[in-house]
Amino acid sequence: MARRVAIIGLGLIGGSVGLALKRAESEAVELVGYARRPETADRARQLGAIDRIESTLASAVDKADLVVLATPTMSIKEILSQIGPHLPAACAVTDVASTKVQVMQWAEESLPQGVSFVGGHPMAGKELSGIEIADADLFKGCTYCIVPGRGASEAAVQMVVDLVHKVGARHVILNAAEHDRFVAGISHLPLILASALVMATTQSPQWPKMADFAATGYQSTTRLASQHPRMNRDICLTNGENIVAWIDELTKELQRFRTLIAEGDLGLEQAFERAWQARNAWIEEHGKKS
Q1: Which of 104, 114, 237, 277 is in the most buried spot, having the most CB atoms within 10 Å?
Q2: Which pLDDT tens digit goes with each residue over 60-69?
Q3: Strands, DSSP E only, in 42-176?
Q4: What pTM did the predictor assign?
């Protein structure tokens, strides 16, 4: 495991990485933090997510063994170009972005020879954001995707694997294109669906009265619409083709259900039965909560 870790970005994910590492490593690792807003960095240190603050990106990554980029996706390109000249030889850089193909390309363009980029994506989070809700248990038991960059050293990959295990997650190694196809369906499509459902219902003239009746089903189904708008925008800008493909698949299914409902088709129960079986099989096989 790295002895000096620089965390760039101290919101929910960056703060949670710091808290989890401090609990696992105690004094064995030094956590250096950088945030665009000084008050965020101060709060992260007060909460124990980092040991010390640096006011510039260059000083934050100085002598770091591992750099964790926990910023909005679209800001990663600029950050990589800024930290590139200041990274120590053999340093490993990872990220926590929800998309990988674009980020991996930026890393190849910006990082110097000898520095390894190992993409990362923890399949965990909350609909809210910010250092105040950072949680040392956020990654406990979750799947954490690891996408080694071209030419990444075995030592760098192992460093990121060690990080994943220290924060309580289990790692899965895959390539960037596969990652983006998968998460477009199981993570990004639900986000679009939740947002579309909120817009379809809240724009209705009947919404002021309907709102009183919206209960746990509506709340849980629309939860992802409360994610930070900038993060949602960045996801779509860096994984648009895959998301559009899944929207097309969902549209086909919605149209199929529409036809069955409009025609009062007896096959409607069978359609719900297939969905019921598929979801229950997933829950059983992967130990999810219903």
Answers
A1: 104
A2: 999 999 999 9
A3: 52-53, 66-69, 92-95, 116-122, 143-148, 170-173
A4: 0.91
